[in-house]
Amino acid sequence: METMSANYEDRDTLFNFVVKEGNGVKGLIDSGISCVPQPFVQPLSERIATPNGQTCEAVQPIDISQLDGPCHTEVAKQIVEAAETLGFFQVVNHGVSVELLELLKMSAHEFFEQPPENKAVYLKEVSPSKLVKYGTSFVPEKEKAIEEVALDFLKSSMAMVKRIVEVLVEDVGVILEEERMNSLMGTKMVNMNYYPTCPSPELTIGVGRHSDMGMLTVLLQDGIGGLYVKVDNGDWLEIPPLNGALVINVGDTLQILSNGKYKSAEHRVRTTNIGSRVSVPIFTAPNLSEKIGPLPEVVERDGVARYKEVLFQDYMNNFFSQPHDGKKSLDFARAD
Ligand SMILES: O=C(O)CCC(=O)C(=O)O
Ligand SMILES: [Fe+2]
User: Fold this and answer.
1) InterPro entries, per this entry (predicted)?
2) What is the pTM for the complete model shown?
């Protein structure tokens, strides 16, 4: 175990403490540092100076419960437009109980606020489960409570996710067979992110610029704020916390399938000094053996295939082989 006098300016010491020993960035903050160690200081171009972004029409929440009622056309249009422009939107009346969302946020805080030695048993090198890892997931036998809420969240949001994907796919004139739909959404993962209070938020970032690789991401964020999405003109727009709402964003796979119609959104997260923040994303992605490429009907209509067909496993390997760099991940599938 490191002591308070450890030299966190040294990359290796820092890596061992934060990653290998599983103390996380939270452990660093808890050790009493008053400034972000040099290796975490971001180049000017990556820092997020403004505490608040602008908000605009595009982030007004969509009442998804209206999708299968008399306003179907209107609501479907809102979803399609948001997916085509920002690639991000919020939904309310989504069928996931608001009590469950509250419980989830509480459980995430409880999990991360445990002493480091309790969390260390879930580190990926030692975790008893292949699917369950500290930083990405949990140990079912050991963390029954947290596993149950996370699973509930996953289960109760899936119908909504599928419905949104259906609406988006229908709008490009395609009806996917049940089997293909299930293969395209066969990989599901719930993460819990914890952003400790940061002594110098202006120097660093919570999560760097990236896009998500899958179909759609559902994200529960708490009231702290700090999630930004890149707009076409290069500005960053904050997706404001909205109690009871869920954030939905388009991933790379859906951009590829739609031949570029839907925008996998480049996003990033600011840190703050007002309090710790938790967020809980559910990622849906294809089965690893699934081939992904622009849907043939769309290519025919567009007259060009903007992406080539790739095995999702290869897409994912490439995605995780590089550090975050905006939407560079899509280059792997770009047609030459
Ligand atoms: O914490 C957030 O608001 C977003 C996190 C995120 O982008 C991710 O986990 O992929
Ligand atoms: Fe993300």
Assistant:
1) DIOX_N, IPNS-like_FE2OG_OXY, IPNS-like_sf, Oxoglu/Fe-dep_dioxygenase_dom
2) 0.87
